[in-house]
Design brief:
9 helices, Rossmann fold, five-stranded parallel beta sheet, alpha/beta, binds 2'-deoxycytidine-5'-monophosphate
Length: 215
Amino acid sequence: MIIAIDGPAASGKGTLARRLADHFDFAYLDTGKLYRAVGLGVLRLGGDPEDEDAAGDVARNLQPSQLDDDELKSDAAASAASKVAAIETVRAALLDFQKSLAANPPGGKKGAILDGRDIGTVVCPDADVKLFVTASVEVRAERRHKELLQRGETSIYERVLEDLKERDARDSARAVAPLKPAEDATMVDTSAMDADQAFEAALKIASPVVAEKLR
Ligand code: DC
């Protein structure tokens, strides 16, 4: 049983995916972390995230321990991630890991939830449920801005907004696996929803499918 959740940065898809995974007791993989770990790995080696060879090497040698790093949440990691994510060899190197987790969820779980940009289109085109979670770029910037302030970091709304617009453009315009809804995805626009409302909306879509499949 696979639930694919895609959407742009700061759309709330991560929070939603985690809550759904808890609710159904499914495994959860935040695939953005893989790209962040590759981006951060290249930066730490003093390399350029747009350098195909450097990023490809880091992706092919990625270790699970690199996914538990607080620095992955940083803006530097996010920006490097969206650069390495445009490189075909990086995406190819990360694909097997994602597919095998989806096919064999760890811990004997009966299902897996993956969130990212190309889960419904490339990683799990046969997913049982596909959600595309969006919100206006202004709402997403406002949420990210508040989150940064809550974490005690400095943040300027206009900069967060520009940064998100830049990442949206890079994620959507790239040639390989661009950010776009799968044809059979259900759109969940969270612009006017809080996290609880988004969760309720997603449950309405996913619950009947999960109940039928695991019957
Ligand atoms: O979801 P996130 O902000 O952690 O993602 C970081 C970057 O990784 C984002 O700019 C696009 C890229 N990404 C991707 O290309 N494909 C995925 N499945 C997940 C993330």
